[in-house]
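Self-study notes.
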Amino acid sequence: MINRIVEQVQNLFGVSRLEKIPKVILPEVHKINPRYVSAFAVSICEKLQNAGYEAFIVGGAVRDLLIGHKPKDFDVVTDATPEQIKRVTKRAIIIGRRFRLVHVIRRAERIEVSTFRALNEEGIQKDSNGRVIQDNVFGEQYEDAARRDFTANALYYDPISQEVLDYHNGIADIEKKRLRMIGDPKERYREDPVRILRAIRISSKLGFEIDKKTAAPIRAMGKFLSAVPEARLLDETLKIFTSGASLKCVDELAHYGISPDLPVLGLLIQAKDNLMVRKALDRCDARIQRGLSVSAYFIFAVLLWSRLKETFSKLPQEIPPSKRWKEAIEEVCENPITRGIQRRYIEDVSEVWRLQTRFERRTGLNPFRVFDHPRFRAAYDFLLLRASCEEVPHELADWWTAFESALDDEKEEMIREMERKVRTERGSNRTASNRLVKDSSKPVDQEAEAKVQRRTTKEANPKKQEKTTIREMSVPTEKRTRFRSNHLKRTRQKSALLSKRR
């Protein structure tokens, strides 16, 4: 039986010898900083070990710890079955059909706990393309190591003894900055085509070079991505956005000729030379590298922006612009190009787009309402991006930058100043219109012309503009005062909340 399993492994993974005994790397050699390790992940390993099971932190978290990065996510692997894991840990949920896993939850943190996978191919179900669709056969740790994708991800860290177990010379590959597939790359890509995207993302993120044998089949194997569920493709797309090297990932995907079946990922690859898309990805990478977060819907809004403008221009011109804009947004959000994107992201994208036209109205209560909108920050960043691409005047972006940082009294004064400017411009337009009427051959109503001239002169007079009261503005005094009071209250609540978080 054992010999048959070994033979299957040799055929399946293209290895001549299966390593059953790992290299043990001691703490003084690997120099992992324990402070970078999730205390929750450590507690799960400790509980499982106290219950008589083996438990290790595994995968990308160990790789990141070895190169001195603080991992965002931690995965734990054990010889306990999902049911046993659930009994030992609290707040555990068994999930998955393809691979049965356990999510252990504590407040906002979630640790994925899996069981060692076996190499026995008899228990693995595959589709016609060779993609693994179900695999719930459990085995030994050395088998689990051979089942992992890259050598750099097949490392096991025991947070209790602080030792690292290495079955496939993963540490040596990390030191050489090389990403190498375990086994035959063709077969491994066929088993799970998402490994193609993962190889490009990990190498771009860490500055690694993909091993020649690992890179060789990527172009030919890209066609198998069409069989991958949209949810998995979207998940990998979001990881590309938040990798801190999204711009390089896009260039590499284009280099290998990858054209996945997920429209938004295909659009990302096609738009690699689009100035606005490249600037957005560059800014997102800079935020990630500074330790800040990035909203996925912001990237989706950028990717679909050109489609929105195209749709808007094709709608009948007799429709009022505001209604046309709304219809264009609805049409793009319902377009098949958004297939695979979760509805919550689509709703956020539409809000960012709607706020773009509201930025142009800087009078009355609109600036305060826009400023208090939940998506103001993302929409404001989108406005700055548009200004950097010469889509909107820099004056508009600068005004909102000043408004965002101004005190409430200063905000009020900025709005008054804008209202005075609007009235002056309207007065100038009326004067120009009156001149055209005067020069035409049509008879002119002298009394009506005199009234228009007096009103225009009054509005254009800067001294009289100084005396304009709030009551004379477009919004009643009581309503403006009430709104300003509510705005101040919300601002103080936000400040108090931020201070508490600090």
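Second protein, same conventions, sequence then structure:
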Amino acid sequence: MNERRASTGEESARPPSGEWPERADAAASPGVDRDQATRLIRLMQQTEHLARVGGWELDFTSGSLFWTDETHRIHETDPRTFTPTLESALAFYAPGSREVITQAVGHAQVAGTGWDLELEIVTRTGRMISVRATGQVMMSGGKPQRAYGAFQDITERRRLEHQLMAAARMESIGRLAGHIAHDFNNWITAIIGYAELAGQGARPGSPEREAIDRIREAAQHATTLTGQLLSLSRPMPAETSVVDLNELFQTMMPLFKGVIGGAATIRANFAPGSLKARVSASQFRQVLLNLVLNARDAMNGRGTIEIRTERRRHEMPLVAAASVGPPTGDCVSFSVSDTGEGMTPEILDRIFEPFFTTKPGGKGTGLGLATCYAMVKASGGHIEATSVPGQGSVFTVTLPAIKTPRADSPVGAEAAPSA
């Protein structure tokens, strides 16, 4: 739980006397006619919804609590049927957050101060969301008379912050791996060179020649591994073209049926028509193969794997940052789902990290999904994993779509990615 500063001093904007005047009603202020008041109320409601910020007011004398429409929306309650009270409002907070907000409100009632906290609540429908709760107690005659405050849904902002930290972590690990791999690759080159020289003086078929061949083969495998490591720390140049994902994946289905084994089944659910994106066909064959093999291993070779393609449109979110989240506009996507055991949030958080693997020692390098991540990012796409323990996992790749050229387009003309 991430807590913000709780106001405990006199820094809030209270009058020097410590007493608060009666609140003024904007709609009843001089110079504000009914039309202006209606417009003002409508504007406040619209801006509340846009900023995901609701308001509230508590009368300590009567015990009545008022929520604006946006505060009801955040809690997923119906203002026509649900009347909030202080007790019911506190009950929405998750257990750990409830203790914090209860203490903050109690202190503010005594000291006439306020609070500013980031907490978690459980909505009326059972969703856990993150909120910023702020409030200010107004005193009169040394006693609390009224409190007011704001309530903001910051779930999307929290998710974005988490993605930014994960991306930064991936970048730092990739750079470290790249530096190590670069030096390691130089040593492997020397080993291969000396093995070639030694092999020239060894008689074919002799034990010495066989041992030298094994050294050379092992060094070649190590070269492949360092190549994967280097790809994590620098752009992955590859020849790209406009590829129909449906056609590309359809040609790979016989291969998948062979590699997953007889105890597992694989099925395709492809969107009708063509789904075109500018990618490296060879790289995305590798991406899909890695995801299918990962799904097979997650099920221990038993269960069902589904490959799905679809069209999507992503609008720019209210909270956004460059290079985080899926591309906006018209997109094509494909996903690989399995019926395995699923992943815990702790595993899911690190699933694309280089060298991270849940497989037993010696069974995996921890570079398969990290390589997929690098290839997708190099293509301007986005890859994410979702999972629920006991219900399997889904890996989804989203790419900017290429619009199919019109029939009257010049021959050789290529449609630009949709915005």
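Instructor comment on the second fold: The mean pLDDT is 80.
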